[in-house]
Each structure stands twice: as structure tokens, then as C-alpha cells.
From TrEMBL:
Keywords linked to the UniProt accession: FAD, Flavoprotein
Record-linked PANTHER family: BLL6224 PROTEIN, D-2-HYDROXYGLUTARATE DEHYDROGENASE, MITOCHONDRIAL
Source organism: Undibacterium pigrum
Cofactor: FAD
SUPFAM superfamilies given in the database record: FAD-binding/transporter-associated domain-like (SSF56176), FAD-linked oxidases, C-terminal domain (SSF55103)
This protein's name: FAD/FMN-containing dehydrogenase
Molecular function GO labels: catalytic activity; FAD binding
Lineage of producing organism: Bacteria, Pseudomonadati, Pseudomonadota, Betaproteobacteria, Burkholderiales
Amino acid sequence: MTEVDIMRTEFLANCINILGNDFVITDAADQQPYLTDWRRRFVGKALAVLLPQSTDEVASLVRLCAAHHIACVPQGGNTGLVLGSVPDQSGHAVVISLKRMNRVLAIDVANNTITVEAGCLLAQVQDTASAEQRLFPLSLASEGSCTIGGNLSTNAGGTAVLRYGNTRELCLGLEVITAQGEIWNGLRGLRKDNTGYDLRDLFIGAEGTLGIITAAVLKLFPQPRAQITAFTALESPDAALDLLKYSQDALGPTLTAFELISDFSLQLVLRHFPQLQHPFGRSYPYYALVEMSDHESESHAIALMEQVLEQAMNDGHAADAVCATSISQSKSLWKLREHISEAQAKEGKNIKHDISIPVSQIPHFIQITDAELSAAFPGCQIVCFGHMGDGNLHYNVSAPVGSSDAEFILQQTAINRIVHDNVHQFKGSISAEHGLGMLKRDEIKLYKSELELSMMRAIKVALDPQNLMNPGKVL
């Protein structure tokens, strides 16, 4: 047995002493769910998968990793799309899964806060808040499988950012294990605290590269008395921008979601989910799913939404519109939006882009980027949808009809260059809500200034001098 083997055996024995034998996974087959990325396109390797159940156990593991110079890959629900929550293929790192740390620690209705461990599923937090007539507004298609720790580590967005902001805006305090295995208890439910650098915001969105988030204090809101959903038909992205501006003026802060959907995106959903129905008798180039939340009454909300839709059609902002009159109808309309990613997967491989553009520039971006891609890759199909209300588009590119997906994927670098160069031209971001991970780690170097990158590196070195916290991600 080599010296390295002896050290690893000693390390694993210490892990078992901390967690117990059942929660140190070394069998390759049992490790697979933790090593395989959400899209099943990449499989990493790990020395072990560790499943702590407490903050103290996480801290002990990190101290052990620091002593043995073994890298840690924090993991929540492993629903990320940029290879941020899986290890590389060296087999030298350990995955620290927080899924057993799934307790709701406290809920303070008067302070409108909930304190939860990082392994809590997003849906669990939503349900706990709802039971107290409160709303936790973060909403994602993966809410039944993603965790709060992962949401915080990637600063997740979702469908309600227009009204409530990203996960960063929904977090008041954190508990974090530093790279040295120390416990920072910042679980404060304060909305005002000007006592120095905002360490909380430093760890949110850092993708586990600076420390491991183990718990959080999150904002809650009063439950709205009514949520009204409408589906509108549009002739162009310009019409969508006009409708958004009109809706914001008419509905103000009650406007909670404004989702743009191209007709090709909708057709994919209808093809692969035939139980869903087209809202209109004919197709239109684009659609917008609009939702408002009202604190008066359902009848007031319906009347206000119908008034907005009628005026929008009279003014030419919308070609047609339907308003859900029941919860089931609202859910059906949302399924047309939420099933787009799954429909894409059923259709075949595609090249994904999670981008943000200043809202006012979205129509122009779509126009010129569609044209450039069509010229460079004749017949390519654009799956354009996303959270137009906050400027976040999922601008994905599928292979031409009849062509090989595998051959088309080989064009990813060239397609990324067209899309990302145009994003940069419009002063946007090549990662709006999914993070950088391994997938975009090198790509970002083309668009961030060297000064930005050097400041990020300085923070990384200061907090994680051994480079053991999720190495190879972000930087």
C-alpha cells in the first residue's frame, strides 16, 4: 500500500468516526447519483460521498479535509445545469451532500422569517410558509428536488424575480462553514444591519467556492388573497416589451411574473405533452404568460386583469388573451411554460444559454441573434423563452430538422460565440441564474475584465487559501 493509499484509508476512517459507516459512501455504484450531473452528460469521480446531519458534522469534515488537503464539493439537490455541484474526474475530492440537513429550525410569523437548514427542499419551505398563511416566493420548475442551499449558492432566480427578486434578495442571514472548518453564525433576521462588509452576500452566488452554507434565515411575505394568470398572444418581442411596460404601469407591484414564450417553444410542449391544450385557435409568433397577485379579493383581481387585457388588445399590445378563471386553469397555463425544458429534452439535444439582457434591449437582441444564427447555421431552431420581466432569457438552439444532434452539438463553441458576443454587446450576462460552475468557468474570461477576475481571485485566496472549496468552479 502506498503512502497516498494509507493517508486516504486514514482519512476515510476518520470520516466514518464522524458520520458512521452508513453515511460514508465509497461504493462506485452507490455514488453515481451524486456524481452525475442533472442533464446526465457528465459523470465525475469522488474519493467518497459524505452525508452529514448537523452543522458540527460538516465543520468536522471540512477540518478533516483541510488537514489532509482533500477538496470538498458541496451538494444540495444536484439540479444545477453548469456542472457546479459535481466533482471533476480526478477522484481526489469528496462530495459533501447536505440532503440529510433538512429541518425547518424556526418560523417567526411576526418578523416574516423562516430559518431552515440548507438541505430543505424549496417546496418544503414553500409549504411550511403556506401553512402559516405566509408566502416564500422563490419558484422554480425543480422546486420539488432543489434545495435552499443550492438556491443560495447559485443565487437562483425563477418566475417571481420581477416582484420579489433573486434568492439573494430573499435571504437575511446565513450559517456558513469556512474553508478552515470554522462555523460562522450569521443567522440574523434583520432587514437593516450596517456593521461592516456584507459577508452574507459574499457567500450567496459563490457556488460553494468560499465556504459551505448550512442554514439560512429567509424572508416571508403575507399570502396574497388571489393570484390571477393570463396567457396573451403577441406578434413580436417588441409587442411583448410594450405589453410589459403597459402591465407594469397598470398593475404596479401586483405584477409578479411576465414570461416570454416563442411559438416554437410552445409547439414543443404541445408535441410532447399532448394532454395540454393550445390556449388559442391559431398560432402566434410569441406569447406572454402574465401573473398578478392581489391582496384585496379574487373578484377585484379578476376585474383588474381583465381590464388590463382588454385595454392592451385595444391598444395593439396583444393580439389575443385568455384569463384563467380557476386554479386548475392557471396551473394548465403555467404547465405550458414549465414543461418547455422537459419538452426540449424529449425532442433531442440542444445548446442552452441562460442569459440576461437589459429588458429594453431584448427585442433587438432576439432580432439580430436569430438572424446571425440562421445565416451561420441554416435551419437551426431557436427555443426562446424565459423571464422577460427581469431580462432573463433561456435562448436555446436546436439542430435543424433531419440533422444529427451529435453533429450539431459539435458546433457549440461557434454558436456560443455568436450568442455570448451579442449578449456582451448589449451589456448583458452569459449566466443569469444558473451560475458558472465548470461549464462556463473559462467562457467568462472572455467577457469579464481582468480587474473583476483579479478581485474575485483575491477573495478566493483570502477565504480559501488551499483551494479546497469546490475547486475548478467559477474561477
